[in-house]
Every structure is written in structure tokens, then in C-alpha cells.
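Each record in this resource describes a single protein on a pair of labelled lines. An example record follows, reproduced without changes.
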Amino acid sequence: MRIREVVIAVSVALVVLLLAYVIEAGGLGPIAPRELRELAASYLVNAYNPWNVTQSALSLEAVTAIVWDYRGLDTFFETSVLFASIVGVSLVFRGYRERLGIGGRGLSEIVKTSTRVLLPLILIAGVSVALHGHLTPGGGFQGGSFIAVLLVLMSIVFSLDFVVERGLTSGRLLALRSVGLIGVLATSVALLAAGLALGVEAYIFQNVAREGSELSMPQWLLDRPTGGTLIFFNMFEALAVAAGLALAFLVLSLREEEVREALGVGEWYE
């Protein structure tokens, strides 16, 4: 190990210890107000409040209740912005196709063997974080980011050819990303569409029963609360984020031959 690497490692450790000491000593000042604001108190009280369902998101995780229920429209547009940025990355290199036989053979067999053990564990962790986002800290974005690591890890350890041979092409990833966003959209208008069909009052982004509308998404799955729409939002967002981030990595990892084909230039291009 070189002296420079030792110095960097020690410096990072010292910064972490210093920051921890400053926080413990109160050096950052009051981090939160002593009294909760009325709006914040309302969120905390009603995030999971089966005694007042019309104001509750029925989510044990208050952050998910805020993100996908109380301010769900804002979150939907945030997801749309991310989708648009992924599409923009794809458009820059539109027209390319993944080519086999121009990548490396990956890392050593020892690394490949250990990675084969890790891959299903990462997938399980990502799915768990996404599906339990209304019960514990996490959610669709965090779970989707976990799952996107699979493609990055496989590309580095096994090679991009390995990824493409297993069907994880840019076209399919973009399609999965679209399915995720369409799922979010469908979930957000599900009760509104049901209300129009039944001739009763309903709202966009409605989760459970609200004032003037008795319609509700399923609140329980066996003996576990679902948070109504929240479990569906997390599930579809996880799919959209996983496919979108994986697509961005795949496009940004294009080899020289694929970039030339996408840009329509020949061997003379430097």
C-alpha cells in the first residue's frame, strides 16, 4: 500500500471521528425545533391511524406516507423527471445496438464465484426494501437502487457481454422502465377510475376512504398492512428505478465500436 493511500484513509477516518464528536458535543446547534409544527404533528399522528381512516395513509412508515400519499402528485412528477432524463441519455446514443465479442472476460474465477453467491442476496434485499417501504425505512427508490447494483456488478465481474447475453439489453430495460412508470400512473388513478365507473365520488391519488368517498384500496395482505396504494407505488417505482439506473449505466458503458455505430462515424473518427 502506497503512502498516499494510507494518508487518504487516515484523513477520511479522522474527518468521520471529528464530525461525530462535533455532533455529540452539540456543535451543530439545534438540529430540530423543540416543538413540532402543526403540519408535522398531523403527519406523525395520522400516518397510521386506524381510528381516523379518512385522514390516515395507514402506513407505519411516516416518510412513505408523506411521499406517496400526502404529497403523491409531487413525487409522481419527480419520478417523471427521472424517467425523462433516462430517455434523454438513451436518445443521445439512439440507433446503437449491443455487440458481442468486443468486451473483456471479466475478473478471476474466485471473484466470479463469490459474486454468484452475492447476486441473489442483493436481489432479495432490494425487493425486501421496496415491498416493506410502508412498514420500515426504505421504499421503491431505495429498493430499485439496490437491484440496479446487480447489472453494475455483473458488468464489472463478468463483462458486458455476459449481461447482454442474458437479455438485459437497453431496449428491454427501457421497456421495463416504462412499465414501472405506467404502473405508478395506473395506481394513482385507480380509485378515480373506479369511482367514475361506479358513479360515486373519488379522487386522484386516493389511497383509502376519504371524506365524501368510501372507496379504498386493499388495506391488508393476510396479517400485514399494505398501506393501500403505497405497496403498489413502491413496487412499480422499484421496477422503474432499477431499470432506469441500469439502462443509464449500460448506455454510459458503451464500447468504442458501439459509440461509432450510434454516431454514424467510421474508422476515421478520432
Observations:
- The two ends are 37 Å apart (CA to CA).
- The mean pLDDT is 84.
- Strands lie at 220-221, 224-225.
- The first strand starts at residue 220 and ends at 221.
